[in-house]
Amino acid sequence: MYNGGYMNQSTVSNKVHSILKNEPQQNAAESIHNYLHYRSEKISYDLLEMVWDRTNDGMLLTDSDGMIVAVNEAFCIMVNMQESELMKLPFTVIYDRNMDRRQIFDEYKINVTNSSFQKKYEKRLALSSGQSLYAEVLTSILVDEANETFVLTEFRDINERKRWESSLHQSEFHYRSLFENSVLPMYQSTVDGKFLNANIALLRLLGYDSFDELLQLNVETDVYVNSQHRIKLVENLQNGAADKATQLELKKKGGSRIIVLAHSRILLDDHQNVIGFEGALEDITERTMLERQLQANIKKLENTQEELTKLNTQKDKILAIVSHDLRSPFCSILGFCDLLKSEFSTLTDKEKLDYVGYINEAAIQQLNLVNSLLDWSRLETGRIRMKFQPVSIAKIAGDVMNSLLGIAMKKSIMFHLAIPAHLTVNADEQLIRQLLSNLIGNALKFTSSGGTISVELKEDSALQSVLTVSDTGIGIPAEDLKKLFKVEEKYSRKGLEGEIGTGLGLPMCFEIMKKHQGSIDAMSIEGTGTVFTLTFVKQARTECKKVLIVDDQKGNQLILSRFMKRISENSETIFAETGREALELMKTIRPDLIMTDYHMPTMDGLEFIRRIRSDEAMKNTPVIIISGDEVDYFIEADPLTSTLRKPIVFTELKQTMERIQF
Predict the structure, then answer these.
(1) Same CATH fold assignment for domains 9-157 and 168-283
(2) CA-to-CA dists, residue 429 to 385, 424, 425, 433, angstroms
(3) Residue 145 three-state SS
């Protein structure tokens, strides 16, 4: 029974029952009574309430005056509003303010009066949240035992279906247009697989210049990717089983592949003998790629959701761990401040200096922790702008050692630097400096007087460089090694002279190496020392032999090709006009370098790069992206991707090429 406020359980159950029946009810209470009478062993009010609460469709119940009296959780999520924001308000509160709410409300009143609601229709809703929603709307009029009239409206989210319908509509329009203009690829062939006839559209589809070329082909081996597929199709046609379009993979001239839908039938002579086949082909390569990409994107979204859940859990752990350390220094600071404030006149000068010293020490500890947290957060969230270039590890390590030389001399610790001056790694200089400062600074804390700290770099192979930072200190317990690089563990120990760490230095080192597509490992024996090993991955190629230029402007292709010939005379340039065409070429061609425009049809340069980096075979290919926009801000930290601004200047391109390791 409606009491002017929220719906009680009985009324909601009646409403849900009406939905299950999927038809308007003139007396919902009587209908559900009859329904329960005959189906009592299978359904209950509790079950109906469960349907209301758990359905994915949004449910809205309004009274004859258009006031909201009940909504389910799915509806609240759909319109991005809380139940408390909706109840007892006109249903038009869900619509965008720019819409004519009064007209919508007036139409509702007329429909209630005349019982003229459209039962089922599709509609695009502009919501007050600023979002829009395509929904399938089902409307039912309910009358309870007190003769109160209610309107139950069910909203089913069909955004995804609409997107697919739009995509399919575009494809269908494309193919229909081809058919109407006689450009649908059509053919006739013999039983043994020779073309008898074909139209110009088929020549274009398969990439041939003349019909004479087609006559020389064996369809089974030269056109089909898998000859068994034609054998199977022929068998189905002869047996009358191929009454639907068949999806086939065909080869174009040059070897690239396409996917088509073949609408085929047999050709018979006057005596009903099979003399050949004919059919029309639909090129569905792009649509199939979109479907595959959609599935890949769905999988990627699922993985992203899992990663976000993991990161959220990690964040909670970090906050729980560091909250204690964030508070602890304030105990000392506030305590000694209180003593100085209340007992200043009775304290000796030495006590005052000691107290100020304690406050200073606690403040420094707090500042170090906050700075470490901020640095780690900026690196983890990608807010640090990284600039990859060949850097001298010998120079950076020497600078770091010089800055820490005073501490080393005070503790009688020797520094040993063994890095050939000519060895470089492709890295961000500031982050590598921070990395070495953390590692060498840690080594100083845990190395006794007379010990040695060594930094060495060597080229382990043509594929990688290995940097080691070792000490002769007290070492790390074996059970603690696995905690070193996990920020949620926040592993920290006091140094030999009581130095306090933040526990975030080594996780920061791990993130820095991760950004450089490298790795960091630790080995330690208690009482002997610790060795940190950092591996920097290099490119295996030593010469740029093949360059893939991706640009839809012929002029830009020519300029870049000319520039590349001046930089590398023996290099071969390959052209593609779109990212999709380039990806297809890269299935058979492995370029040493890719130069791509940012603004391109169907797929921009950033999406093209993301596709490259997600492919195991292509992910280590150097890329130069060219644009008139500030695109480097949007590119994730990637040591293999460089950016150039238009117009292209030869000297800038040459300098960029010199920084790339092939």
Answers:
(1) yes
(2) 12, 11, 10, 6
(3) coil
